[in-house]
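Memo to structure team: turn this sequence into structure tokens by end of day. - J.P.
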Amino acid sequence: MKSSRIRRIGTLPAACFAFGVLSASWFLGAPGALAQMNALKIQIDPADGTYELGTAGANVFALHAGIAAQVNGQWLQSGGYPKRSTKESTVSDDMGTAHQWAVTFSGLAGKPDLLYRLRAYPDKPFADIQVFVRNTTGQPVNIDTIRPISGVG
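Reply from structure team:
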């Protein structure tokens, strides 16, 4: 039987790191899934799975990033995965209705998948991102660090 066990580091669940709120005041535009909320402009690049955030009406994005995780002492960057998929949906949670992008990075032999969910709320000036490590290796993995914002380029 395959083990999909993931160890906890400290008191935080290492399998899921919820990166707080990205305020629109941090942000100062490109093909892909583009959404413009009242205060934010968000784009997911289908070619590499990176995301871009900016203020609505701005000509450029203020943030262009991927995700990363240090697993078993080795850094895994989202850009290093050969396969990626993006799913868009509308979801509701305690914050209200949101546009959600779920991006999965997979296909590295012997390595877990990386995933992120980015949510933007049409009536709120922020978005949130959650990053996950999905163990598909059949062996226990040790998750040292998760980065919801990892530089690209």
